[in-house]
Design goal:
46% helix; Serine Threonine Protein Phosphatase 5, Tetratricopeptide repeat; 17 helices; alpha+beta; seven-stranded mixed β-sheet; 425 residues; two-stranded parallel sheet; 15 strands
Length: 425
């Protein structure tokens, strides 16, 4: 309980960073919320359910005065206040109040399965049939490994037409300029193929920090984005980092793509996804997992490098996975297997999506441009149709086209050598 209240205060503090230009009403609400947090903490310590309920109702009244945008931002604070009240009732063995309040918290969006199932405050109601039903409901939307295991299967017989992935040649002028501008041959070194792939990963991770609080620059190619980051002393989000690294790999002759990894998100409340690279290692005859945000790659118990499909399959089937020991976020925090793979990526390996054309400036938008994507869906997904979606941007006059497939063989197809039309082996 104490930890949950501390998280509430931390989220309020983070809003100062994200919303640098706050309105007077936002500042007033933050001051109120911080005071409410302290008072509720005191009520919790005294096991004073009436005081805690009164404070929660008062918080709800003030919350509902916020704009729709601010309500969405503080929604987690709002639903957690009701969850914490349920904890107080449960500790006092007021089972009916506890169950009713927990149900309200869940309906308001408190869907943190591991929190609810692991919270000792809930021990007095844990065996109640209503509690079990509620926890089962939450598990379906928040136990990410469970969701991934249920999704599991694809359909290798799915023959819906999708384009063939293509990879820009390293002799394309922009890629040649990129290779020369950053002396990528020297950075990659003269080692074997895999060591060169990993050195380029390490270089990008050191050169450009991850910055998830800002959008990427409008011009989305490696040379331009690196220049903007240097000029403005800023970083890139995961998509920007994967875009830059992808172009570096292409410039060195490696066939690679960046992959957007999405959650199932049946409630439409999780806007988070993660973007990493997959690189085809000819020496291994396979795709391998490369994550510039975390300087991470993944191996099996023998040390063999794995690709996204293999990592997903091993998560589903409880097979061993190893993350390189030097994986980290911005050299400030180690990337730990349990959090990284079994929680965060288990959530985000549900839906996978790649641009059809892996090329320089792939996502810089301009009038008349068409950007195509292929989306790999598991059979468990609730929205399989339509097979093809075309979206036209009215403002900038460009088009995005999305093709859906359940066939992993089409999604993970071996790159083709454009000069010989033969698969690369």
């Amino acid at each position: 309980m104490k930890l949950k209240l501390t998280i509430f205060a931390s989220l309020i503090f983070l809003s100062v960073i994200v919303k640098a230009q706050q309105t007077p009403s936002q500042k007033v609400f933050m001051a109120f919320a911080n005071q409410s947090d302290s008072l509720r903490m005191a009520a919790y310590k005294k096991r004073d359910a009436k005081a805690y309920a009164d404070l929660t109702i008062k918080f709800e009244i003030e919350y509902k005065k916020l704009s729709t945008t601010d309500q969405a931002y503080y929604k987690g604070n709002y639903n957690s206040s009701w969850y914490n009240l349920a904890c107080v009732y449960a500790l006092l063995n007021e089972k009916e109040n506890a169950l009713n309040t927990l149900d309200k918290a869940i309906k308001l969006g408190f869907i943190w399965y591991s929190t609810i199932t692991g919270d000792k405050d809930m021990d007095n109601i844990r065996k109640d049939p209503r509690f079990i039903v509620m926890v089962t409901r939450v598990r379906e939307v928040n136990d990410y490994l469970y969701i991934l295991k249920k999704a599991g299967k694809y359909n290798t017989s799915d023959a819906r037409p999708v384009p063939q992935f293509t990879y820009q040649s390293a002799d394309e002028p922009h890629l040649v300029a990129l290779r020369k501008a950053f002396n990528l041959d020297s950075i990659a070194g003269k080692g074997n193929e895999v060591s060169r792939i990993i050195r380029l990963l390490q270089w990008i991770h050191d050169l450009v920090p991850h910055d998830g609080q800002h959008n990427n620059p409008e011009i989305k190619n490696a040379i331009s984005m690196i220049a903007v980051c240097k000029k403005d002393s800023r970083g890139l989000n995961c998509r920007g980092l994967a875009t830059v690294l992808n172009e570096c790999y292409l410039s060195m002759g490696f066939k690679s793509r960046f992959v957007t990894c999405f959650p199932k998100d049946s409630l439409k409340i999780d806007n988070d996804c993660h973007v990493i690279n997959m690189v085809y290692a000819k020496s291994l005859n396979k795709w391998i997992w490369i994550d510039p945000t975390n300087e991470a790659y993944v191996m099996d118990e023998t040390g063999t490098l794995l690709g996204l499909a293999e990592v997903r399959e091993r998560l589903v089937n409880d097979k061993p996975l190893i993350v390189n020991p030097d994986a980290n976020w911005n050299h400030k925090q180690s990337t730990v297997k349990q959090d990284y793979l079994y929680n965060y990526m288990a959530k985000n390996l549900y839906i996978l999506e790649c641009p059809v054309r892996s090329e320089y400036d792939a996502e810089t938008t301009q009038e008349g441009k068409k950007i195509e994507y292929i989306t790999l869906l598991p059979l468990d997904y609730f929205k399989q149709a339509p097979d093809r979606v075309e979206v036209v941007n009215d403002k900038n006059k460009y088009t995005k086209v999305f093709y859906k497939t359940n066939n992993p063989n089409l999604f993970w197809q071996v790159p083709v050598d454009e000069k010989t039309s033969a698969s690369i082996r």
